[in-house]
Design a protein that fits this description.
This protein is of the alpha+beta class. 40% of the residues lie in helices and 13% in strands. It has helices at residues 3-18, 76-85, 98-106, 115-118, 133-137, 140-152, 177-199, 208-219, and strands at residues 27-32, 39-41, 57-59, 65-67, 91-95, 162-165, 169-174. Helix 1 packs parallel to helix 7 and helix 3 (98-106) packs across helix 7.
Length: 228
């Protein structure tokens, strides 16, 4: 079942390791099958070194295991809430990558300080509020998704394809699993550049007109970046 998507999600999880965004088992990737609406996600706590495509777990939007011998990722409820809320999202990635997690642990959004940021994110990469004691004790993973939904509100999730969970780390997404990984890689580099930029004393965001130009030439209705 969903063998092609299993292969894609398997490779995406390995790419997180390859790109230096994940060590040990500190991350996960998932993908949504457009036709069935089913989700394929990494199994919980399984080593990347021993993991195989057939180990990926197929679940429905209620979290029921449809196929798989392992338990799905413990972050599955967060993924599922985002899939339910954002119909345009086809893939989700969670990591504890160094620089993005540094901003998350500091409780700070990543400001759009230059055009590298603007090429990928239309505005700051927001950091969520802290979860309350009750939200952590009950339905923690669902509430993690809820603060992402809360902070985005009416924002197109594909224009800001990442949120930092306060004291935790980043969740990223995209049109599909591969795009979600791409955005996670971009986020980590942007977080790294911003860290050093702020360290040098600059905190003011890039001028709005320059942010508009760089984001829209790649992602806008009349974009002209790349080949036709």
């Amino acid at each position: 079942m969903l063998d092609k998507l299993k292969e894609t999600v398997f490779k995406a999880n390995l790419d997180l390791v390859k790109e230096g965004l994940v060590i040990h088992t500190w991350g996960n990737a998932s993908g949504r099958d457009k036709k069935s609406g089913l989700i394929v996600i990494k199994p919980s706590g399984v080593s990347y070194k021993s993991m195989k495509p057939e180990d990926m777990v197929v679940i429905d939007l209620e979290g029921r295991v449809i196929e798989g011998k392992f338990k799905p990722s413990t972050d599955a409820p967060t993924h599922l809430l985002l899939y339910k809320t954002f119909g345009s999202v086809g893939g989700i990635v969670h990591t504890h990558s160094t620089y993005a997690t540094t901003w998350a642990q500091a409780g700070k959004s990543i400001p759009p300080l230059g055009t590298t940021h603007a090429d990928h994110f239309y505005g700051p990469v927001p950091c969520s509020r802290k979860l309350t004691d009750i939200e952590v004790k009950k339905d923690y993973e669902i509430n993690t998704g809820m603060v992402i939904v809360e902070i985005l509100k009416d924002v197109d999730p594909l224009s800001v394809p990442a949120v930092l969970i306060n004291c935790h780390g980043p969740f990223c997404w995209g049109t599909d699993t591969e795009n979600a990984v791409y955005n996670a890689v971009a986020l980590e580099e942007i977080a790294r550049i911003a860290f050093y930029t702020v360290l040098l004393g600059k905190k003011e965001p890039v001028d709005q007109y320059l942010l508009d130009k760089h984001y829209n030439r790649k992602h806008g209705r009349n974009s002209y970046y790349g080949q036709n």
